[in-house]
Known about the structure:
This protein is mainly α.
Amino acid sequence: MKIAHNSQMALAILAATVLTASHCTVGKYPPDEHNKVAKPFIADSAAHDPLGVLMSGATSIMTGQEFNMSEGMLEGGTETSLLSVLPDSGTEAIQQQLALADGLIGPFTAPPDSETGFDRSKLPPDLWTENGTLLNRAERIALRIRQDRVHENNPLAYVEQLGLLLYACLHLDFAPEGDRQSAIVQRLSQTTEYLQNARSSLRSSSEVRIEAARESAQGVIKLIRNDIANSVPSTIQPGLEAASDQAVAALENFIQSLGDLPATDDWRAGPDLFHAKLALDTGQPIGPIGTLIEDTMSDFEVAHKALVSAAEPINRRIYGGTRPRDDFRLVNDVLEVLEGENRARSNERMMDQMAQDTEEARTLCNEEEIAPVPEDLKLRVIETPEFMRVSVPLAGGFGPTAAENDHTALVWLTPAPPDASRAELRDRLTTNNIHQLKLLALRYGIPGYALIGALASDMEGQLKKLTHMVEPLPGFIDGWPIYITETTVGTAYTGDVDFIWRKYKLQTIGAALVDMQMHAQDMGPNDAVQFLTRRAYMESSAARALVRSLQVNPTDAASTYLGWLGWQKLRAHYQETTQDFSLASFHGKALQTGSMPLVEFSYAVTEAKGRLSLQTGEDPGGE
C-alpha cells in the first residue's frame, strides 16, 4: 500500500532537476535524507501514544513504512488500529520506543559532513520546521525514558493514561458512538495485562506519587462503575460487565501492589533534570536555572506591584480614604469583599455560572475579533473526573479532537467534595468566584484549550496532524490559554474582572516560581504553600492542591509560564513581519500551524519571513 504526498513528490522532482542541472550524480540531498528518517518516524512514534492519535482525528495509522525517495512517498508498512488499544507498558516496548527516538536523533544531530548527517539549513521551510518539531519530540521521548525514567518511578502516569483512554471514548467524538463504546469494553479487557506490565516496570517512587496513584486509581474505578456503566447501552452490557469486573479487580490489585513498591520522601526532580525537561517542554533554550528563577521573581514582583496599584482605588471605593498599613492587608481586604460578595452559593450554581461564562467568551471573541471561533464548536462544562484531580486540582480542558465530526470541547471544573465542611465549601466557592470563573472560561474553554483542537483540525493532511498533535509541546499547549486569557481580558474587560485577572496572573507566575524552587532548589511544600498564600493571595486549599500537583508533575507550571512568554514573543515577531496585523488572523494562523518549538514556530507562522532569535546565558544547568 502506498500513501502519496504530493508536496514531497514535488520536492523529489525539484531535487532531480537541480542535481541534473549541476551535473551532480552523487552526494546527499537534504530533503531526501530528512524524509528517509522523518516520515516513517511520524507514525511509528505515534503508535506509542494512542490518545494523541485519537486527538489528531485518526483511529488507525500505518506503521513500519519506508520512504521511497525516487517516488517521493511512503510505502509498505502495516495498518495499526489505535481505536481500542492500551499502549504496551512493558519493558521491551519501552526500549523499542527509546530505540525509535534514538534512530531519529542520531542523523538529525549528526555533523552535516558525517556519514549519516545532512545540512538541515538547506531544507525547504516546511521540512525545516518539521525537522525541528520531530527532533524535539524524539528528544522528549528519550529524556522521559533515559533520564526522567517515568516508566520506572511514576505509577500515577500509568493510571491517568488508562483513565483518559477510557474517558475519551465516553466524551469525544473521534469515532461513531457504537465504535467508541465497543472500544471501552476492549480496553477494559486489556486492563489486567496493562497494569501487570506497568507494575513490572516500576522500580520505586516517591511517597507523594504513590498516594496520588492510589487516589487516581480509585477515581478510575468510579469512572468504570458509574459513568461507563450508566452510559453503555444494554446491547453491550453483557460484555461490559465482565470486562469491568476484571478491570476493577486489576486496579484494586495495582493499588495494593503499590504498598510493596520501594518508596522515598524525595520527590524533587533535581536541577539538571528539571532544566533539561523544561528546555524540551518549552521548545526553546533555557538559561541557567538560577538566572531563570531570578527573572521569574522579578516578573512576580512587577505583577505584584501592578496588583497593589490596582487595589488602591478599589480599596478607596469600598472603605473610604484609609489605606491599610501594608500591601498584604490592602490586597486581602479588597479580595475579601470582591470574592466574598461575588461567589456562587453552591457547587451547582458555580457550574451553571461557568456554563454561562463560556457563552459570553464566545461572544467576546467574535465581537472583539480576538480569535476565529467556529460556529459549530460546542462546549460542555462538567466536573473534573476524579482520576485527574491530583494533576488538575481546580479546572481543566479537553478537546475537541481533529476528527471531522468532532465539534465538542469539555471544560472541567472541580467542585468542593460532597463531604466538604462549610469552611472548605466556602473556600472553593471563594476561589472560583464569579470574576475568576470568567477567566477559567477563557483559559479552559473559548478561546483557550477548546480552540486549539477546533482550529488544528484545519491542518492539511493526516500526516501533518500526527506531526503536530501527537506528543504536543507542553509549552505551546499550556502557554496558549494563559496568553489568550491575558489578551482577551486586556481587550474586553476592565474594573473588577481586570483586578481578579491581575491576581490570577500573579498566581500563575507564583506557581512557576515555586515549581522551579521546589525541584531545582530546596523549597519545601510548606514553604511553597506559605509563599502562594502570603505573597500570591491564593486560598489555602487551592495552594495545597497546586503544590501537591507540582510535586508529582515537575515543570508543569514553569513550562506554562515560559510557554506564555513564548506566545508573547511570537506575537511581537509576527507584528514585526506583517504589515496588516490582526489579532484574529494571527491567532487563527498560529493555531492551524500546530505545536512546534518556538524558533520553528515563528518561521512557520510568518511564512518564512524570519526566525525569532532566542539567546540565553551560558552554563544552562548551573547556578
